[in-house]
Each structure stands twice: as structure tokens, then as C-alpha cells.
Automatic annotation (TrEMBL):
This is Tyrosine--tRNA ligase. One of its GO terms (molecular function) is tyrosine-tRNA ligase activity. CDD domains: TyrRS_core (cd00805). Pfam families: SYY_C-terminal (PF22421), tRNA-synt_1b (PF00579). ATP binds at residue 236. Homodimer. A motif ('HIGH' region) lies at residues 42-51. The gene is tyrS1. It comes from the Bacteria. It is found in: Cytoplasm. Catalyzes the attachment of tyrosine to tRNA(Tyr) in a two-step reaction: tyrosine is first activated by ATP to form Tyr-AMP and then transferred to the acceptor end of tRNA(Tyr).
Length: 430
RNA sequence: GGGGGUUUGUCCGAGUGGUUAAAGGAGACGGACUGUAAAUCCGUUCGCUAUGCGUACACAGGUUCGAAUCCUGUAGCCCCCA
């Protein structure tokens, strides 16, 4: 994709929320390859769906021939960005921060190309901040920040008006981020910073500082936040964030998250997060409108995202699991198949001997599997018809499980409700 | 420091000394319908060795055949006076 198309594409996708001096920015991008940076807060050791917009933004620029810098905020993460936060952040320990920086950095490699002429860079602002003394920083940087202007920033104002207030530490946050921009401009000739719309204040602070300290014009570009049609942040379930790390959120869960995206949100997700082209987008939009039941857009979105994040193997196993889990009875499977399909489903082991003789009471099995909290709940569930053995509904409370109920050599599949599965493996020791 | 009020299940909120495991609502969890959706409808929502039993209405004790309901003390919250 050429630069000219890049801007057009971003606009079409609705990814441009605000920019500074758009005409000039556009000219700059077309004159020669530029360097663009986005900062990431290392609040956890993995990125989550909420970060994907920004990661994709860098990727889009890279594909148009520009050099992306993913800045992991080892230093700024120690302070905490007050933007969009209603309360003071708890500070992370340096060790925790370091392991988060490592984790996030590793994930970046999956989305950006790190070699070649427009190879991405992964930088940590702790590297240039750690040796910067407080006195020097105040003289070089602080001097250029009129408190009046700082007070005017939305992130500061909203916090000052709220109960929670704002500590001096968080108040100072924008100086650090502003300095990052200046540093990157000076050392890496980076003149563009992008981010979510909540970063506008921080970005413009950096631009001001760049003008004062370097006499250079810097540029900012923000993307809208990824929210659902009813205004909540995307990428979260009741259980928490959808992580990119397969150990935190399995490929199957990840895939399912996108499959379940609301009709009202799905096209926006495709525009914001994927690289699906316009013609396909249009036909998916058309299909969602005329035949929403097919959920063609959701399936395509889920497939694209899962493949990007978890690769060909991840998408294959997610789809395989989906077809079994939402299919009919499970019979004559092998341990290997079930193990793969239910890789992320909680499983427990118990001794095979319980299956012999009388058999194992289903109520006990349910408790053992943690699908229910008490035997009362187990009985209730059976009465309500929400318990399934190998995907076949159990209606009789006195059912006893025997060898004949195994779905494969040693595994039996329990389910409660529509989507909650548990595996029980029977082992023979000695 | 003195006086008054309040404290119920996940949350909100009724509750007459006696079918009160506690009305009603929310939430949650199921089921039907559907598109693995939304809306709607229905059911469930303390535990157990389960047509019975045990715990439970801030906590401890008391009155009574019987208490979430009455009395006393302790604690939390709220209001008024100093």
C-alpha cells in the first residue's frame, strides 16, 4: 500500500479521530518514509484486545513503507497515566514492570517486521529516563511546561474535579510522555505520534515540547476508542480482558469472543482491526444487513483475528473445537482429539476405579468437575435440564457413570448450560 | 458526652410473635424461542447422606410453647443537641 492510499484507507476505516495539521502531515508522509511511534503501557505481561487498534495502526504504517516504533513505557509505567482513569493508579514494582515490558515486547514481534529498511523498533523509555536526574529534567523539560496549559488538559481537569483527585506524580506524567516524543525525534527522527483518542492531551504536550526544545514541528494522530454500540470498551468480558497470550486466553476463547460480537459492532471491528479490503467489507456489510443470522461478518472477523494472533494452527484448533462443542453428541473420539479440542476447558483427573461396579454418581462427578459448587446445585441443574454428558442431556438425577459413558479411551465430557464444559480424565495408577 | 434512628439473603427492599428458607425487584444461572444474537416467555437462586434434616434476618444473651419480629448488652452506619 502506498502512502497516499494509507491516509485514504485510514480515513475510510474511520481510524482518524483527530490530527494536528493534517495537510502538512499528509505531505510529510508522502515526501519520504517517516517514523511513527505509539506508546504502550506495560500494565500486564501480555497485550490484550484493547491494544490491538494501536498495534494495527503501526502495522498499517509499516506496510505503507514507514518505520514504526513501539515504545514500551518502562519509565512512564512507573508513574501511571491519568488519562481516562478515574482513580490514582497503584504503582507496579520494578521487577513486575520489567517482566511486563519483556512480555509485551515479545508479542510485538508477531505483528511488526523488525528487519529491513523500514524495520520496526522496540524501545523502552526507561533506558533514557533512568539516568536523567530530577534537577536536569526540571531545568530542561519542566521549564517548558506552563502549569496553566497543563491544568487545561482534559485528563488533569477531570481528575481535579473528581473525588479521587490527582497526585503530583500522575500530574507529571505528561512531561515524561512529552519528553519521549522529543527524545524519539532527536534520536530516531520520529516526528509522528499516534494513539487512542484519550492520548490527545499527552501527544499535543509532546508536540509543544518539540517546538520549544528542538524548534521542530511534530505531528499527532489519534484513533477513536474501540467501544461497543452501547458505549462500553471492547475486548472485555465479565471475566476480564481478552488477552493475546494463549496461556491467558486460549485461541478458542479468543475466536469465540469475535464470533459473539454484536451485529451493531461487527463492521466497525472489521474496519478498525483487520486488513480486510473494501470490497469484501462491503459484501460482508451487505450480508449482515440482509442475512444477519449467518453471521458471516463475525465469522470472518473471528477467523482473521485468530489467524493473526494465534496463527494457522490456532485458528484451526479454534474452529475444530467450535464445530464439536456446538455440534451433536460426542462419541467414539480419541483422547488425542478431545485433548486438543478441549485444550482450554478445565479438566480434572480421578481414579478409573470409580467407574466400576455401581458406577459414579453424576452429582458427585459434577461437583468434582467444579461445574457446580454444591450437590444442591448439581441436583438443581439436572432438574433444570442444564446438564449434559458427552453433549447428551441428562434428565435422571440418579444416573451413575460407568465405562460405557466414556467419550474416548479415558475421557468423559460434562457440560452445564450452553457453553460451560469440563473434562474428566480417568487414570489408572499402579 | 447526651438523645433518636437504623442494621434482613449477591444487591435493593417488604416483613403482622406462629405454613417465613423469609413478599417484591435487580442481578446471576438455567430452559424455550433464535443466529452460539437481541427482545420475549418460563424456571431456579443457603447447605446436606434430601419427599426429610440442619443452619440463616449485624453479634452475644434473655422473655416465650414459639421470635427476623419483644427485652438487654456489644459493634457498624445515619441524624439532632453539646
Amino acid at each position: 500500500m502506498t502512502t497516499k492510499n494509507l491516509i485514504e484507507d485510514l480515513r475510510w476505516r474511520g481510524l482518524i479521530h483527530q490530527t494536528t495539521d493534517e495537510a502538512e502531515l499528509s505531505k510529510l508522509l508522502q515526501s519520504e518514509p517517516q517514523t511513527i511511534y505509539i506508546g504502550f503501557d506495560p500494565t500486564a505481561s501480555s497485550l490484550h484486545v484493547g491494544h490491538l487498534m494501536q498495534v494495527m495502526m503501526l502495522r498499517r504504517f509499516q506496510q505503507a513503507g514507514h518505520r514504526p516504533i513501539a515504545l514500551v513505557g518502562g519509565a512512564t509505567g512507573m508513574i501511571g497515566d491519568p488519562s481516562g482513569k478515574s482513580e490514582e493508579r497503584n504503582l507496579l514494582s520494578p521487577e513486575q514492570l520489567q517482566s511486563n515490558v519483556d512480555g509485551v515486547g515479545k508479542q510485538m514481534k508477531q505483528f511488526l517486521v523488525f528487519d529491513g529498511s523500514s524495520g520496526a523498533k522496540l524501545l523502552n523509555n526507561f533506558d533514557w529516563m533512568q539516568g536523567y536526574s530530577y534537577l536536569e529534567f526540571l531545568r530542561d523539560v519542566g521549564k517548558n511546561f506552563p502549569v496553566g496549559a497543563m491544568m487545561g488538559k482534559e485528563s488533569v481537569r477531570s481528575r481535579l474535579e473528581s473525588e479521587a483527585g490527582l497526585s503530583y506524580t500522575e500530574f507529571s506524567y505528561m512531561l515524561l510522555q512529552a519528553y519521549d516524543f522529543v527524545y524519539l525525534c532527536r534520536e530516531h527522527n520520529c516526528r509522528i505520534q499516534a494513539g487512542g483518542s484519550d492520548q490527545w492531551g499527552n501527544i499535543t504536550a509532546g508536540i509543544d515540547l518539540g517546538r520549544r526544545m528542538l524548534g521542530k514541528q511534530l505531528f499527532g494522530l489519534t484513533a477513536p476508542l474501540l467501544t461497543t454500540s452501547d458505549g462500553r470498551k471492547m475486548g472485555k468480558t465479565e471475566k476480564g480482558a481478552i488477552w493475546l497470550d494463549p496461556d491467558r486466553t486460549s485461541p478458542y476463547e479468543f475466536y469465540q469472543y469475535w464470533i459473539n460480537v454484536d451485529d451493531a459492532d461487527v463492521m466497525r471491528c472489521i474496519a478498525y482491526l483487520t486488513e480486510i479490503h473494501r470490497d469484501e467489507y462491503d459484501s460482508l456489510a451487505e450480508q449482515t444487513a440482509s442475512d444477519p443470522g449467518r453471521r458471516g461478518a463475525q465469522k470472518r472477523l473471528a477467523q482473521w483475528m485468530t489467524e493473526l494472533v494465534h496463527g494457522a494452527e490456532g485458528i484451526a484448533s479454534a474452529q475444530r473445537a467450535t464445530s464439536i462443542l456446538f455440534g451433536g453428541e460426542i462419541e467414539k473420539a480419541t483422547d488425542a482429539q478431545l485433548g486438543q479440542i478441549f485444550a482450554d476447558v478445565p479438566s480434572v483427573e480421578t481414579d478409573r476405579s470409580v467407574l466400576s461396579g455401581e458406577g459414579w454418581w453424576i452429582v458427585e462427578a459434577l461437583q468434582k468437575s467444579s461445574l457446580v459448587k454444591s450437590s444442591s446445585e448439581a441436583r438443581r441443574s439436572i432438574k433444570e435440564g442444564s446438564v449434559y454428558l458427552n453433549n447428551r442431556r441428562v434428565t435422571d438425577m440418579d444416573v451413575r457413570l460407568t465405562e460405557a459413558d466414556l467419550a474416548s479411551e479415558t475421557v468423559l465430557v460434562l457440560r452445564r448450560g450452553k457453553k460451560k464444559y469440563a473434562l474428566i480424565r480417568f487414570t489408572t495408577n499402579r
